[in-house]
Amino acid sequence: MNNNELVLKLEKKAVNIRQNILETIGVGKKGHVGGSMSSADLITALYFYKMNHDPQNPEKTDRDRFVFSKGHSVLAQYAALAECGYFSKDELKNTKKFGCTLQGHPEIETPGIEANTGSLGQGLSLGLGMALGGKLDEINYNVYVILGDGEIAEGQIWEAVNAASHHRADNLIAILDKNKNQATGTTNIFDCGNIENKFSASGWETIEIDGHNMEEIINALDKADTVEGKPTLIIANTVKGKGVSFAEGKFSYHNAILTEEQYEQAKQDVENMKSEVTK
Predict the structure, then answer these.
(1) How far is Cα 61 from Cα 87, in angstroms, rounded to an integer?
(2) Are the CB atoms for 21 and 36 separated by under 8 Å?
(3) How many CB atoms are located within 10 Å of the residue 202 CB?
(4) Structural domains of the chain, with CATH
(5) How far is the C-alpha of 277 from the C-alpha of 12, rounded, in Å?
(6) DSSP string, 181-213
(7) Sign of CA dihedral 33, 38, 40, 42
(8) Quick check: 35 and 250 in contact, CB under 8 A?
(9) Is the Cβ–Cβ distance between 67 and 278 less than 8 Å?
(10) pTM of the model as a whole
(11) Smaller CB count within 10 Å for the chain: N or C?
(12) pLDDT band at 279 (very low <50, low <70, confident <90, very high)
């Protein structure tokens, strides 16, 4: 498969992921449509291109690990896990129902989930622990952690940044879903300054990309594989709610209830994305 064919295949898969996200949200219940949609292309590239994982053997020792630090966007991960076959797609519509294994934040009882997250700021520390554990056990795997750009105001993130550099954790790859919005407004509520410069100054390799350009995403993930002696941060510039016309760039859809009309519009918007991909 040449690069153009690969990119097209992944772009089509990203449409499926967005359709699955909408299935988890449905009508009349709150769902984190904004951050799930902004991270959909990143999740697609991880699960269907880069990560070594096996739905038939979720606990295999040398699997790559993925931690969704901004756990409220787990709907995108559920969408990918169902698409991969970790559980039936029929489960998606039961998300957040009492007794269902798919809840509003990741829980390790769910097949394919590596860590409970959602208390923001903790995922990078968890990912670092997994990465260092692999080095101690001499097992060759990578750990991927998706962070939110609102989340990185948390102090524990920066402790993990410094610790990862100190321990030369080159099997740790953080991906910043930089959609510039958080629950109650833009990320200017707490300006963290130049993120690339801060991570670079702390000893990280940094790569900046368009987080909706599949070719740039896979190239960045490949480049991260070549980095030695230090962790990598991929800064992915994204749009909150990407693919849903009325939600794009709006913090009000961070966690929102969709009406029947909005749900149908969202499904049509994503269907239109499929038409654009297949042109």
Answers:
(1) 20
(2) yes
(3) 18
(4) 3-277 (3.40.50.970)
(5) 7
(6) EETTEEGGGG----HHHHHHHTT-EEEEEETT-
(7) negative
(8) no
(9) no
(10) 0.95
(11) C
(12) low
